Amino acid sequence: MSAIQLTGVEKVYKGRVHALRGVDLTVHPGEIFGLLGPNGAGKSTLVKILMTVIRPTKCQGTVLGNPVGDRQTLARIGYLPEHHRFPGYLKGRQVLEFFAAMSGVPRQTRRKRSSQLLELVGMSEWADKKVGGYSKGMRQRVGIAQALMNNPDLVLLDEPTDGVDPVGRREIRTILARMKDEGRAVFLNSHLLSELEMVCDRVAIMVQGKVLRQGTIEELTEGKRGYAISGAEPFTEEHHTLIRSVTDGLEVTFESHRTTVLTSDPARIQPVIDALRARGVVLAAVNPMRPTLEDLFMETVASDASHGRPGAARKGVRP
Ligand code: ADP
């Protein structure tokens, strides 16, 4: 059973803004899944449909095995909305207990879990201070704790590290990993690509209301991975010819001290190492190389733009 399985989700706002244009998406149980896309791609719209905050124009699919919008299933989902505003007069602990009450968590459990979760997100000392006095990062931490109060099987986090400093972001990554270890599926929206790359098992790239690519980073970089062989001295023309003669038509690029061979099979680069070593070349490093999530993202956005929607290109340049 998938944590989330969607087919052909569409949303048209006010009869004219096509925010989602047929989204197909699968999130497996127990994985951290990242949805990335430029501003306005439709990420929040999708999460809001899953949480029944807004109505889809068209939606087929399941969440935790039940139809999207099933009320009992909603109680098993944790949700951190984008731009959330907790009432400033509530204390951190009260926020947690209030939202847990709305999910039907019994009073005794609320007390215990709120202390545990405030500890988890590093907010114990601030538990009895009013949210109105918190920084943005502190509000995000409380928001993440809030999303775990109902002990959810699936956690939807919309820009969880928004406004959080680098130390806090690292701590949040640890918390996400822990959610996964506890067997929860985590679905997160973010425009911070390097961050998603560090935590996600699988990602989907959404552009202009459509998921253009999804899979593990390994899958998405298939055919684009390679090995960089670095020499202690710059490679010469003679070395280049030698390398070409043992790489059997693989794509090879040369820089001064570095040669990159496009293959994900380590066996294919051994002849290069052997040939260079036989000529007495001192090698400084051999490193696997793969495109970053940012490379993939830019390529996807650019290819979408070249398929005839010029607006997509400009919007997509800055994720
Ligand atoms: P993202 O979360 O990827 O930034 P959104 O889901 O917020 O994208 O928005 C997708 C598109 O839908 C955008 O063009 C946005 O302007 C539009 N949109 C979002 N909410 C509304 C709304 N309530 N009414 C009209 N248009 C909306």
Question: What is this entry, summarized?
Answer:
By secondary structure, this protein is α/β, with parallel strands linked by helices.
Strand order of the largest sheet: 6-7-8-3-9-10
Count of runs of 4 or more consecutive helical residues: 12
Strand content: 25-35%
Architecture of the largest domain, CATH level 2?
Answer: 3-Layer(aba) Sandwich
How many domains? The number is 2
CATH topology of the largest domain: Rossmann fold
CATH class label of the largest domain: Alpha Beta
Shape: elongated
N- to C-terminal separation? Answer: 32 Å
Based on secondary structure, the structural category is alpha/beta
> Which regions contain 5 or more consecutive residues with pLDDT less than 50?
310-319
Small-molecule binders here are: adenosine-5'-diphosphate
Mean pLDDT: 91
Secondary-structure blueprint:
Blueprint: E1 4-13, E2 17-27, E3 32-36, H1 43-50, E4 58-63, E5 66-67, H2 71-74, E6 77-80, H3 92-102, H4 107-120, H5 136-148, E7 154-158, H6 166-181, E8 185-190, H7 193-199, E9 202-207, E10 210-215, H8 217-220, E11 226-231, H9 237-246, E12 252-254, E13 258-261, H10 270-278, E14 283-289, H11 293-306, H12 310-316
Parallel strand pairs: 3-8, 3-9, 6-7, 7-8
Antiparallel strand pairs: 1-2, 1-4, 4-5, 9-10, 11-13, 11-14, 12-13
Helix pairs in contact: 3-4, 3-5, 4-5, 9-10, 11-12
